Amino acid sequence: MYQSRQAFFNQNDGGEQSRLSEILGAFSYALDLTEGQPAGHSIRCCWVGTQIAMALGLKGDSLRDVYYAVLLKDLGCSSNAARVSELFVGDDRKLKQGFKLVGSRPEDLGEYLAVAVGVDAAADVRERALGNLAENGGAIMTEMMATRCERGADIARQLRFSEDVAEAISHLDEHWDGGGLPLGIAGSDIHLGGRIALLAQVADVFYSARGRDAALAEIRNRAGSWLDPQLCALFEKLSEASGFWDELALDDLPEQLWALEPAAQDIVVDEDYLDDISAAFGQVIDAKSPFTAGHSKRVGLIADRIAEKLGLDDHRRRVLRRAATLHDVGKLGVSSAILEKPGKLDAEEWQAMQDHAEHTTNILSQIGVMSEMAMIAGSHHERLDGKGYPLGLDERSIAMESRIITVADIYDALTADRPYRAAMPPERAMAILQDEVGKAVDGQCFSALQAVIEQGLAE
């Protein structure tokens, strides 16, 4: 039943090509950042889930649906990040990581909250948060899980996946005994893909944090309560096979997973699909903060209009629009406590904020068909005078596309509400940009933006 490494390579010795799994697998690292999980969490879960699905005899579209439902199970995770940070008073990434390690006993959650909520906050703030959770915890958790599951399912549809993939993602937090959220459904009413995804998640979270024995213990403890007992028995049998746990720890596990992609030949990742993928993950990015709704799409639009004014050809404009849409993908790795802070960031917080640009470059550089735009997107905080970040580039080495994104990003940020100030009128924003011409802002890009605004920004 278990698909060994050698069998995997024997069946997949053809020439390499870009796959949908590679593209979305690279983006899954951004989802891992948002959930506070070790890099590769989604990929390891997908590998475990695919092994289970194959052992069940799933093939073709059914197997592919499980594969992508597990790989993309956290598509909606950014949508409740700000809420988690606000209600639990802390770093949403650390809180989410700790929450997934909570035991399955009813009292375990209360014990975790007692030590995790507001640990760095003033005593009165912490007490108010604990009181609110004690009084309204059930409704709060249902609301947050519903937001996450519904958003994840919607984005899966935008990525052109089937209703089975969308439903499986929406059922990720349902439990076999009916005690899960947000729907409280039980048993086989939970989509099979959702049941497999939750089992794989529990297995990898505990394996990564505490080792294989802890992972097996949690699967056994949750069989029949959280998890489908038949799937748990199947997982335990698979895990006894020689090499199962060793495979999970291999550096080349992602490459193995890409080649296991079911029915891959039926999926054509053309230019239009790449546009859809970029737009979908732009929504994942923007959901991280209530202040950034639509920001990625607007920056993509403004950048494209500027590029048109500057005479960039169609191919460069298309790549630029994707890069502009995804320029903040690295912010998925920044705590919402920092992103939503109404006051000035301290030195440590500012460094964490600056790190998002490097995260953007690293994530996009893993995607073969998008690697040409990695530096373009990741350089949007570089300055012509060399005082930007993360690399301190200057006008000699900043690409025109990056200069365009910089102008579009600053303009949209200034004309939108932020935690620390209200939105500025366009005239004020343009005055600030003009003061930065030759320092942070390219003069040609600024003039092109002026012409675009005069004509109107409507798409």
Describe the structure.
Helices cover 62% and strands 0% of the residues. It has 459 residues and is mainly α. It has two domains: 5-78 and 147-266, Hypothetical protein af1432 (Orthogonal Bundle); 271-455, Hypothetical protein af1432 (Orthogonal Bundle), CATH 1.10.3210.10. The longest helix is centred in the N-terminal third of the chain and has 36 residues, at 123-158. The protein starts with a helix and ends with a helix.
Please outline what is shown here.
The protein has 459 residues and is an all-alpha fold.
Note the main attributes of this structure.
459 residues, mainly alpha, Hypothetical protein af1432, 2 domains, 23 helices, 0% strand
How many DSSP E strands?
0
Indicate the CATH topology of the largest domain.
Hypothetical protein af1432
* Assembly state (oligomeric): single chain
Q: Which CATH architecture of the largest domain is right?
A: Orthogonal Bundle
Q: What share of the residues does DSSP label as strand, in percent?
A: under 5%
Mean pLDDT reading = 92
**Whole-Å distance between the termini?**
52 Å
Uncertain regions spanning at least 5 consecutive residues: 1-17
Shape type: globular
What's the CATH class of the largest domain, please? Answer: Mainly Alpha
Give the count of helical stretches: 23
Indicate the percent of residues in helices: 55-70%
**Could you give a short account of the major beta sheet?**
none
List the helices and strands and how they pair.
Blueprint: H1 5-11, H2 20-35, H3 41-55, H4 60-71, H5 81-88, H6 92-100, H7 106-116, H8 123-158, H9 163-170, H10 192-210, H11 212-222, H12 229-239, H13 244-248, H14 253-259, H15 271-286, H16 295-310, H17 314-325, H18 336-339, H19 347-365, H20 374-378, H21 400-414, H22 426-435, H23 443-455
Helix pairs in contact: 2-14, 3-4, 3-10, 3-12, 4-9, 4-10, 5-6, 5-8, 8-9, 9-10, 10-11, 11-12, 15-17, 16-17, 16-21, 16-23, 17-21, 21-22
